[in-house]
Amino acid sequence: DAMVIQNPRYQVTQFGKPVTLSCSQTLNHNVMYWYQQKSSQAPKLLFHYYDKDFNNEADTPDNFQSRRPNTSFCFLDIRSPGLGDAAMYLCATSGGGNGNTEAFFGQGTRLTVV
Amino acid sequence: AQTVTQSQPEMSVQEAETVTLSCTYDTSESDYYLFWYKQPPSRQMILVIRQEAYKQQNATENRFSVNFQKAAKSFSLKISDSQLGDAAMYFCAYRRNEKLTFGTGTRLTIIP
């Protein structure tokens, strides 16, 4: 019963070649998050959506963009991947407001840049 | 910006013993949520325990309990009767509105 699904699990891309990571959810949650996690480090929030409202972190590079065409899907676009963008990318969802605060995570997409 | 600090990069505990993981955070808000998440080697993050800042009573979930000290901005996790399956990275997290921020994590090793 996967609730947050990330595709693909592993992605190899060439330096500078645009890449898109996808996330879908079956929980009908209002909030969707994208995190970047490098080896043995904390997940770093890139941005999140509350419904269609997009919230970008101040230190997220312009190279990272996101789209949320509907409640169920969210995409992370990396326009020109650099070697420093190699990481695990985690998608998560949660309900909005104060009643549904638990975040549910996907298994992540491990991005390799060659 | 809210920051979450975990001062113990690694901890180890003997199986069946008790271990406490530390977390401090910085905020000027009074209404927020705190969490401990577990990330096993397979890397899917799962919730261990949640604490609402407006509640004085410490949260408990079976073998997991927290010591929430709001004035000190401290939120530690106690794991009792440690089991091999508890081995993982543990992340403390802070949520205000919908923004969820993580600490740097503590890697917990269980010694058989």
Give the strand content of chain B: over 45%
What letter string, H or E per element, gives the SSE order of chain B?
Answer: EEEEEEEEEEEE
Low-confidence region ranges of chain A? none
Oligomer: heterodimer
Report Rg of chain B.
Answer: 13 Å
Number of helices of chain B: 0
State the order of secondary-structure elements of chain A, H for helix, E for strand. EEEEEEEEEEE
The number of distinct β-strands of chain A equals 11
The amount of helix of chain A comes to: under 10%
| Structure annotation, total helices of chain A | 0
Shape of chain B: globular
Helix fraction of chain B?
under 10%
Structural class of chain A: mainly beta
Major sheet characteristics of chain A: 7 strands, mixed
The averaged pLDDT of chain B comes out at: 94
Spatial separation of the terminal alpha carbons of chain A: 34 Å
Mean pLDDT of chain A: 93
Uncertain segments of chain B: none
Question: Total strand count of chain B, please?
Answer: 12
Distance between the termini of chain B: 40 Å
Task: Tell me the major beta sheet of chain B.
Answer: 6 strands, mixed
Question: Short description, anyone?
Answer:
The complex is a heterodimer of chains A (114) and B (112). In chain A, 0% of the residues lie in helices and 51% in strands. Chain A is mainly beta.
Notes on the structure:
The complex is a heterodimer of chains A (114) and B (112). Helices cover 0% and strands 51% of the residues of chain A. With 114 residues, chain A is mostly beta strands. In chain A, the strands form two sheets. In chain A, strands 2, 4, 5, 6, 9, 10 and 11 form a seven-stranded mixed beta sheet that branches. In chain A, a hairpin with a 6-residue loop joins strand 4 and strand 5 (44-50). Chain B is mostly beta strands and 112 residues long. Chain B has strands at residues 3-5, 10-14, 19-21, 24-26, 33-39, 46-52, 60-61, 64-69, 74-79, 88-96, 99-102, 106-111. Chain B is globular and about 40 Å long. Classes of the chains: A mainly beta (114), B mainly beta (112).
